[in-house]
Prior knowledge:
Oligomer: single chain
Amino acid sequence: MAQQFQRKKFIIGAEFQTKYMGIMLSNVLITGLVFGLGVYFTMVKVINDKLPSVEGQMLVSDVVLSEVNRYLLLALPVVVLVVVIISIFISHKIAGPGYRLSRVLDGVAKGDFTGSTKLRDKDELQTLAKKMSIANHNLSSMISRQKNMIRVLVREFNALKKATGPDKSKAKKLAVLTESIAKKAGALDAEFKNYKTL
C-alpha cells in the first residue's frame, strides 16, 4: 500500500497562494460586478420604462433597489469568504507539491538522492513528480554504479601495488604509477562518499 502524505498546513507557499487568491478574487469580483451592474441597470430601465406613473416608478424603484442593495451588501462578504477558502484549498494542491518537490531538489543539490517525490493522489504536478522520480532514480543508480566501480578500482590498484615488489627497477616505476592512480581513485571515492543513493 502506498504511503499517504498528510499536510497539516494549508498556507505553504504564501507568495504563490496569495497571488492565486488575488487572481481568483479579482476574477469573481469583476465578473460579479459586470453582471450585477448589468442586472441592476436593466431593472432600473425596466422599472422606468414599463411602469406608467412616476409615483409607481418611485415606489417600486425604492423597494426593489433597497432590497437589491441589502442583498448585495450581505452576499458580497460571503462570496469573498467562499472564494478565499476555495482558493486556499485549490492553491494548496499546487503549492504543497511544489514545496515537496523543491525540498527533494534541495536534497539532490546536496548529493542526497533518497528523497521521495511521491505526492498525494489528488495533488497537481503529478507528471512533474513522476519525471523527477525517474531522474532521481537514474542519477542515484548511476552514482551507485560509479561508487562501486571506484571501490573495485581501489582494490585492484592496491592488489597491483602489493604484487609489484620494490626490488626491481620496472616494478618501482609501476608501483609509483599505481600509487598515483590509487590516490586519484581514492580521492574520487571520497568525493562520492557524500552522495546518498537508493
